[in-house]
Amino acid sequence: MFYGLPKEKNNDRVPPNQRVTTDFPVLHYGNVPEYKDLTNWTFKIFGLVEVEKTLSFDQMLSLPMAQATNDIHCVTGWSKFDNLWEGIPVEEVVKLVKIKPEVKYVMLHAEEGWSTNMPLADFMTPGNMFAFKHNGEALTPEHGYPLRFVLSHLYFWKSAKWIRGIEFMENDRPGFWEKNGYHMYGNPWKEERYAWD
Prior knowledge:
The chain is mainly beta. The chain has a single domain (2-6, 15-21, 41-190), classed as Sulfite Oxidase, Chain A, domain 2. It has helices at residues 57-61, 90-94, 120-123, 176-179; strands at 2-3, 19-20, 42-47, 53-56, 66-73, 78-89, 105-110, 115-119, 129-134, 137-138, 148-150, 163-169. It is globular, with a radius of gyration of 16 Å.
């Protein structure tokens, strides 16, 4: 399966006050997790589901794969076009559990206590995935190895690095960055960068 972007004029692809780069800047706060052995790595699906599920890394890699192309828009002001991701589509992971009808939001949980929130509808957008490759290469530790979430239409902090789980929720609540001044939603076309925007 492949999800692609329409090839539009560059100006139509750049949100307000963003600059286009061909680099892939590394931005994070705190440590970069190191994995020498993924034997004990787990991915948990929990919250408002009928039965919680925990997967090993090998079990994650056994799920159906896809590729998707997107543009990255970072809250710090850079955009990078035509990123090719390879990984597990969101819908394939969600199929593993039965979500309760009251679910309206998702919290993504990652290493080092990182988390980020979003509406369920945004989480389920076609093309979103749990990626392990970027532009044909395995993710580097700085960019989220062994697995990062990729969300195509919000600021890039919503594409959590070092992802370890999904929590399904009825009510919205802020994740790590949102507690620290970032916008609860993060639409780059509306410049929803910070809580006061």
